[in-house]
Design a protein that fits this description.
This protein is an alpha+beta fold. 20% of the residues lie in helices and 34% in strands. β6 and β7 (162-172) form a beta hairpin.
């Protein structure tokens, strides 16, 4: 029996404006009430980048897709949670998406680690996020990367006919 080679780790890079259409398509293709609180996107689609979602806030993971081409496998958005100087030491993950073909290959984990490294380089000593309570795969990934539950907003959202908790998670960023 032939031994399979390990899958290469995705390469993470800063987003560029030209990534917008591919990132928008990734967002649409991964939309689910498992993680989204906004309604399913409908045409005409808004651009991925706008005044609140800038390329410099996005890290992109490139990987080889099943067709053998290098493509965007996922992205993560990392931003200051507020414009206040009193919490400038914090960064927040406000979006993470991984293409279906790239799941189970370490893409999400690689993006989280890259986000933590970027936040550290920006001077942050803490990183936070919000995740829906029923999103067990994401929560398990975050816990495995050192995040802990810091608060729960019970029944904060009504999705798919039921109330869903909003779970606040965070972790320190070591040196």
């Amino acid at each position: 029996m032939a031994e399979s080679l390990p899958l290469p780790v995705p390469l993470v890079r800063p987003a560029v404006l030209d990534d917008g259409p591919a990132l928008a398509e990734l967002d649409r293709s991964t939309w689910s009430t498992l993680h989204a609180v906004q309604p399913r996107p409908q045409p005409p689609y808004a651009p991925f980048f706008d005044d609140r979602h800038l390329p410099q806030d996005i890290l992109v993971a490139d990987a080889v897709n099943p067709a053998g081409a290098t493509a965007i496998a996922g992205y993560i958005r990392v931003v200051p949670p507020t414009p206040l100087s009193c919490n400038a030491h914090v960064r927040q993950i406000q979006g993470l998406a991984v293409a279906a073909w790239a799941r189970g290959r370490g893409t999400g984990r690689t993006l989280i680690r890259a986000a933590c490294g970027t936040a550290r380089r920006q001077g942050a000593n803490r990183i936070t996020l919000r995740v829906l309570g029923h999103n067990a795969p994401a929560r398990a990934l975050y816990v495995s990367e050192g995040f802990t539950v810091e608060g729960v907003l019970p029944g904060e959202f009504f999705l798919g006919g039921r109330y869903v908790d909003d779970v606040l998670m965070g972790r320190p960023l070591g040196p």
